Amino acid sequence: MRPLGGLLIFLLCAMWSLERECARQLFGENTVKGTDEKEQGVPEILGNGTVSFTPTESYGTACPKGWDFHQGRCFFLSKSELPWNKSMNFCKEKGSTLAIVNTPEKLKFLQDITGAEKYFIGLLYQPVEKTWRWINNAAFNGNVTNQGQNFHCVTIGLTKTYDAVSCNITYRWICEKKAR
Predict the structure, then answer these.
(1) What is the DSSP string of 53-75?
(2) By C-alpha distance, which of 176, 70, 64, 180 is closest to 123?
(3) Fewest CB within 10 A of the end CB: N or C in the chain?
């Protein structure tokens, strides 16, 4: 029985080492933290024997530094404020667009990280059509507050709703792009 217990311990140690080495190879040298550190996004061996890798910002590979990872997308939350057009240009320069917040999961994620600030997103009022559209021209099927005030841009945050605002007022902004 004793040799079997030793073999079991050896196999567990080997699996643990292999898991850590796989993570290093996939995500870089500094991505796997020791057991005394917080292990956010570190691979786990699932009950069915497969290894699950959940890339997070801590890996530094799925998203650029300073961007947040969520469901295969990267999000940048600005710390400064610009009008909508300049916000959009900033995102374009970073290979992204203003965020298209078109799912409840994405909205919840962004609401959780925006705090009390308001951020421009990629939703615009089309006065000729009298509809709201995302910057990718997809229709918006939700509700926007402050609509009757000739505001054509939208922010999220603060009130946890889609708020119509003037495109010329400065706000923070959220860029979005596909994760690598």
Answers:
(1) ----GGGSSSS-TT-EEETTEEE
(2) 176
(3) N
> Among candidates 170, 162, 169, which has minimal Cα distance to 80?
170
Give pLDDT tens digits for 11-57. 444 443 444 443 333 344 333 333 332 333 434 444 444 443 444 44
Contact 148, 45 (CB under 8 A): no
Q: Are 153 and 165 in contact (CB under 8 A)?
A: yes
Angular region, 13: left φ>0, alpha ψ -120 to 50, beta rest: alpha
Q: Report the alpha-carbon distance of residue 115 to residue 14 in Å, rounded.
A: 43
- For the chain, what's the residue count? 180
Domains of the chain, CATH where assigned? 2-59 (no CATH), 74-178 (3.10.100.10)
